[in-house]
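User: Hi! I'm working on a homework problem where we have to compare a predicted structure to a textbook description. Could you give me the structure for the chain below?
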Amino acid sequence: MSKKNIALILVLLALGTIYVFNFTNLFREPKIEITTRVRPQFTRRGRGNAPPPPAANSISFFLNGKYQLTSVKVVEESDFKTNKYPHAIWHLISESNSVPTKAIFYGMTVAGMKPEIEKTKAEPLQPNVPYVLLVEAGDLKGQSTFRIR
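Assistant: Happy to help. Predicted structure tokens:
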């Protein structure tokens, strides 16, 4: 083999390696991807033509597949960044098998999961405060930052 052929093979191997590392998931840790949707809910119209005041926010989280979740937790972002064990505003766990799910709604239970501390409910979220949703399904983990207005 000539030096040109060896150099060409080495260049092709280098390009192939760069492609595999940058454009495939072979060497990346799999994770759960989360899309957050915050929608205001309104009460009935008031007197006259005044718009109704917002009653609450409906917050939904959509996962990139169906997962048997083992933990769902919402914490404040500032607490999450500064503390090893942040205070959970909403925390669900699964003791055995949860039903595979693709969507989660803030404050509502997920089939097969229960609050970590019995008879607790999700705390109300404050406007313009960033929160982090942490989701686990066995070894897979995912997180998403969101805020309400």
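For your comparison, note the following. The chain is about 20% helix and 40% strand. Strands lie at 34-42, 54-67, 71-76, 88-93, 101-105, 114-115, 131-137, 140-146. Good luck with the assignment!
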